[in-house]
Amino acid sequence: MGDVEKGKKIFVEKCAQRRIVEKGGKQKTGPNLHGLFGRKTGQAVFSYTCNKNKGTAWGDDTPMGYLENPKKYIPGTEMIFSGIKKSAERADLIAYLKKATKA
């Protein structure tokens, strides 16, 4: 299990310019992540075809592979984010997202 506070810092540094986690928050260049866990890929307001075709639900383990290498995890994604290589940093970010995006 990751560290929520470290994960928040990682979110601010690597994600916050494109994503938000607040319920009802205004979309940025990427979808609002609120309610992420349990939702199927490609189901947000930004319904990217490649994500929709993946057909995976965002569960406890799903983000680990995605955050490591988004283009490998969901082929065809247009996201410019190259991923987070350190598994501890991914675990921290996921811990934060689980708390911050809880529906």
Which helices and strands occur, and which strands form pairs?
Layout: H1 4-14, H2 49-54, H3 62-68, H4 70-73, H5 87-100
Helix pairs in contact: 1-5, 3-5
Write up what this structure looks like.
The protein is an all-alpha fold and 103 residues long. The protein is built from 5 helices and no strands. It has helices at 4-14, 49-54, 62-68, 70-73, 87-100. α1 (4-14) packs across α5. The longest helix is centred in the C-terminal third of the chain and has 14 residues, at 87-100. It is globular and about 35 Å long. The model has no long low-confidence stretch (mean pLDDT 84).
Please tag this protein with its features.
103 residues, mainly alpha, single chain
Brief summary:
With 103 residues, this protein is mostly helical. It is 41% helix and 0% strand.
Q: Helix content range of the residues, please?
A: 40-55%
Class from secondary-structure proportions: mainly alpha
Mean pLDDT figure: 84
The global form is globular
Tally of strands: 0
